Amino acid sequence: MYPPPQPEAALTPQHRFVDFFYQAGVPPLSTFASRRIATSSQDGDTTAQAQAAQREDNACVTPHEHEGLPVDARPDPRFDDNGIMRLGGHFGLPHPLEDRYEASILCRYPNTDYADTAFPTYLSMFLFPDDLKLAHSPAGPPAETYHSFIVTEENGNRAYGMCVVMHDRLSPAQALEMKEMFQEWRTKALVQADLEYIEHLQSQLAQIQETILHVRHNPRSPPQTTRSATSPASDTVADAEEKVALYTDLLHPMRDTVLASVDNVYVPRVIGVLSRWPWYDLLRDWLCALIRTLRGEKGCAGSEAGWGIPMERWVVNLVKEVPVPPPGKLELCITVGTARLFCSRPPLNTSSLLQNFSLYPFFRCLSPSHIVTIFELALTERKIIFLSSHTALLNLAAESLCLLMLRCRISLVYVGITSRQNVLTSGSR
Fold it and tell me: Among 41, 147, 214, 404, which is most exposed with the fewest C-beta within 10 angstroms?
């Protein structure tokens, strides 16, 4: 039997399985206005308001190159080349859902730092590399995502992190504030012509959809409508469905702006762990199993046995009670609900590199020529920056490169994941 865990005072960073557990996001009692991050497009409301105020006159203002054309042949500046009406979002005034907000640590365990390890104060930069953005999803909360990262301390030590991004509904206070922000945006970005145009599209779409339902349920009875254009006598159901698709496409660009509803807005929240050991896949599976157990999803212990174990108990078990497995064949089993996770360390007479992730994404995303170029840059100690629209792939690519380099230890600055702004700053140097 493996010896019981040592007292906390006697544990060194290399003997702790996990150092910290944390949650990050927007505090429920804080306001979005106080956490909004200013961007270059938000230099001032004066310019945006002036642009919105001139919208009324745009229809009669003709560009210089169209002055010789008849009035009927001149393009309407209110519409783009595809015939879609230009709304406020196209005139430099971002919608509240397009804004970025500052995230903070909501809670952590343990609450105090270790004598040899401090909790990173800049951890939110790795949890939300592109800052925090609200999500609008009429179909329900977006699916969870996860990514790993590395925190390099001043003394060169590294802490390996894994986090899962979830989405929660707004609190009543946040929903009220967001509703006011939506109304303020509509007032500044839209004019009466915009509102009439949107109402016209919605009314036409609702009328045609009602006609289709009436025809399908009563194929022999004509619909009671005042518009003969939507009557089955003149248009077939296929034509009506084509019109529905047309109006839906016209309204689609406004789904997350003008037509956005506060009831469908979700705020991201992150839960994760920090460890001195790169247990990437193991910690990811532990976080996912914890979420499933707390939600009581089918097949989890919390839903079947009704244990009602709070999240704090699972966290204390991982941070305080789970020891680091010894080198060799002995495996450590961690239980979360019905999930059983196993981990082990390489024997002392083999390579001490711990690999708990797959190399497949690295070779699947990069071509052979790119991989060769990356190795050439690494051997010549050049700067390497990975760019990806998927946050989860960034740290995996960097860790895969370090693992394939084996004992060619990188002694320069190593950041597994960073923000877009830091990449632009680094590239300009």
Answer: 41
d(CA 275, CA 278) in angstroms, rounded, equals 7
Joined together, the tokens standing for residue 388 give 């990806």
CB distance 279 to 148 below 8 Å = no
Is 166:20 a contact under the CB 8 Å cutoff? no
What are the tens digits of pLDDT across the range 165-192?
999 999 999 999 999 998 888 888 777 7
Phi and psi, residue 334, nearest 5°: -115, 130
Helix, strand, or coil (residue 45): helix
- CA–CA dist 281, 276 (Å, integer): 14
Token look-up 């979700």 returns: 266
* Cα distance between residue 256 and residue 136, in whole Å: 6
Q: How large is the average pLDDT for residues 279-299?
A: 86
pTM of structure: 0.75
Cα separations in angstroms, 37 against 40, 100, 301: 10, 6, 42
Integer Rg of the chain from CA: 28
User: Which pair of structure tokens corresponds to residue 149?
Assistant: 């990262």
Q: Which of 353, 342, 345, 340 is nearest to 325 (CA)?
A: 345
Give, as one character, the DSSP assignment of residue 247. H
Distance from C-alpha of 45 to C-alpha of 333, rounded to nearest angstrom: 57
Task: Give the model confidence (pLDDT) of 363-393 as tens digits.
Answer: 999 999 999 999 888 888 888 888 888 888 9
Cα(132)–Cα(267) distance, integer angstroms: 8
Angle between the N-to-C axes of helices 45-53 and 172-189, in degrees from 0 to 180, rounded to the nearest 10: 50
51 vs 39: CA distance, rounded Å: 18
CA 145 vs CA 18, 20, 83, 149: distances in Å: 21, 20, 36, 14
